[in-house]
Amino acid sequence: xxxxxxxxxxxxxxxxxxxxxxxxxxxxxxxxxxxxxxxxxxxxxxxxxxxxxxxxxxxxxxxxxxxxxxxxxxxxxxxxxxxxxxxxxxxxxxxxxxxxxxxxxxxxxxxxxxxxxxxxxxxxxxxxx
Length: 129
Description:
129 residues, mainly alpha, 79% helix
């Protein structure tokens, strides 16, 4: 079934760049907003370490997009997706970096959703590349 999907439309390399084109600025926005939104109004963590993590990852992702590095986009998506899935697990079980990042339930939901999307698209990009 995935073979029929992968043969129609843009290549998985292109899809990975397109996804990262959308996702990298989202990471940057999350990092900035984490520093700006008051904690009592935030649904997600505003821990400084968490915000810096988002800013660094968003910067790396933006560099990859600006350089149109398709293999790197697939690798970034796969690795960051796996990190997101781990963070959901860490947040639910108390593993590192749950305390440092002060993860909240909304973080877990987004980590699972984005983790599955990014890891899946990244995997298909690596598999087809």
